Amino acid sequence: MSGEDTKPEEAQHDATEKTESSPDELAPAQASPDEGEGHEASPVAPTQLGERRFVYAAYFAGAIAVAFFFSKIIDLAWLKLQSYKPAIGEPRDEIVMPLSGLIGAGTAVYYWFRTRARQLAEEVAAEMSKVTWPSRTEVQNGTVVVIVTTVVSTVFFALMDKFWGFVTNLVYGGT
Fold first, then answer.
1. Is residue 173 left, alpha or beta, with left meaning phi > 0 and alpha meaning psi from -120 to 50?
2. Torsions phi, psi of 10, nearest 5?
3. C-beta of residue 56 within 8 angstroms of C-beta of residue 122
4. pLDDT digits (tens, 9 = 90+) for 45-99
5. 130 φ, ψ to 5°?
6. d(CA 35, CA 29)
7. pLDDT, tens digit (0-9, with 9 covering 90-100), for 5-52
8. Distance of CA 104 to the CA centre of its chain
């Protein structure tokens, strides 16, 4: 039965079923049959995790950033403590790195279980997935335009500087 043969009630029921399940939950084999050939997924776009891959990546990057930050703080605190009690010795990476890694992982887990923070991250990921990113050739063309414009502007302003320096020396009699 095609989408044109359905009754209005059935079409409305099908539409509500589609909106109730998120795109992340649909497997490629469960894609709706009324999607035409124009709505195929891009072969380079990973669809296994959907938009959630951005959320996972953000939490992972945040955990690494927090771990790096706390490794520096723990190193500094250890050095300050060493100046008061020299028996402690130099900061030991085999203690500092796992401790800062645990703090970073704990921070990521804490914010993962705060539903408001995760919901905000998922909304941002959903909006980012709607962005149309430029293709490789568009980026290359834009880069060439910027470089050529910069070179032309630099040459123009260098020539203007030399010209007005020459005029100023003529008017004021400089050397």
1. left
2. -70, -40
3. no
4. 555 667 788 888 888 999 999 999 999 998 888 888 888 877 777 778 888 899 9
5. -85, -10
6. 12
7. 444 444 444 444 444 444 444 444 444 444 445 555 555 555 566 778
8. 19
For residue 74, count CB atoms less than 10 angstroms from its CB and return exposed for 0-12, middle for 13-18, buried for 19 or more: middle
∠ at Cα 114 (108, 115), nearest 5°? Answer: 125
* Residues 66 and 101 sit within 8 Å (Cβ to Cβ): no
* SS3 state of residue 126: helix
| pTM (2 d.p.) | 0.49
Residue pLDDT, tens place only, 125-175? 888 888 888 999 999 999 999 999 999 999 999 999 999 999 999 898 866
Q: Dihedral sign, CA of 44, 46, 47, 51?
A: negative
Which amino acid type is present at position 154?
A: T
Please enumerate in sequence order all residues whose Cβ is within 8 A of that of 115, keeping only pairs 6 or more positions apart, or say none. Answer: none
Query: What's the CA gap between 90 and 105, in Å, rounded?
Result: 25
